[in-house]
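Backbone Fold Data
Goal — fold tokens
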Amino acid sequence: MSGLIKVAVIGGGASGMMASCIAARNGADVTLYERGNICGVKLNITGKGRCNITNNCDLNTLISNTVKNGRFLYSAFSAFDSQSAIAFFEDCGVRLKTERGNRVFPVSDSAKEVSGALRTAMHRLGVKIINKRVISVCEENGVVCGVKAENGAFQPFDRVIIATGGMSYPRTGSTGDGYRMARAMGHTVTELSPSLVPLVIKGSIPKRLEGLALKNVGLTVTSGNKTIYTDFGEMVFTSNGVSGPMILSASAHMGRKTDFPYEIVIDLKPALTQDVLDKRVLSDFDDAKNRDFANSLGKLLPSKIIPVIIELSGIPADKKVNSITAEERGRLCGLVKGLRLQAVSFGSMDEAVVTSGGITVKEINPKTMESKLIRGLYFCGEVIDVNAYTGGFNLQIAWSTGYCAGTYAAGKEV
């Protein structure tokens, strides 16, 4: 073993486990440091516990769905794409299926099967796992020479891979250690903020609608006169804001916290034009012409949102439908086609799926994931300043960058 390249991997998440497997498979002597008791804790909660392993798509689609620095990942995605990830996990015994939106999941719908397969692969490949926090990476004359763990003891290594994740879900161990170590080695860390995160909405409407899930609705996010994002799909109201697939994706397009507020416009009936909606409302009113306004919207809207729409419309709830004016009906249709909310901030980092920001890609070789500043230092996964939409794209980033870091840390020539 003494003649082998000794590689330390810091972080036992998705990218760290992949890097460990690949480095060991390429003949390196690999030690993985995981500060928690078990590897893959965060992986176990991805995809609501089902683990959306990747997106079954081509290279250009992977890049176009990477919101931050997608072109940087061209080489990594080329070296280890969606099909490579699918083949890797199927070779590990995980049976996979492709669902709506080309999302790939294990047939078992169990994220624990995925993390378990990676742990089994590491064990089979002889990866040593040390459950200790790494305090620092050591270098001499611009070359990595080892790490210091939490007990202060220095351990020599030829190569070190930082795979510590971001700041999201800190309870799983993602507390920003990688950023601190990278800065200490001279690297630049861009501004960090939550991404793929719920939004906090001004006012009492979210609390009143808490738990209401909307399907097949339209979403537009604007800042001033500029449209930031549009989408169609699902969302849900939380106690203080909005969440769901559309909202998480929208958050990836929203800037820093100083750029708030944003206007969120929800089209509750995107399949209907304003004119067609007006005719639909007239028809519903005709069926309920002797009822109060409050009792006439049950066919049009979910019951929970009706009191809010009534209040915003300014039409008295007890007004008879047959006396509602065309102007009032226009206000109602305008609300249905454009319920406007003000987003005042991102949700907390605890709620974020990923972290936006990280070690700047300008200081990382895009082919090898090696630092341009310190020889023998590599990065992979969320610690890098890259992030993508939901749908398996962020995990594909973890697999691809982990593959490259593991391959070249093990000694492959560039």
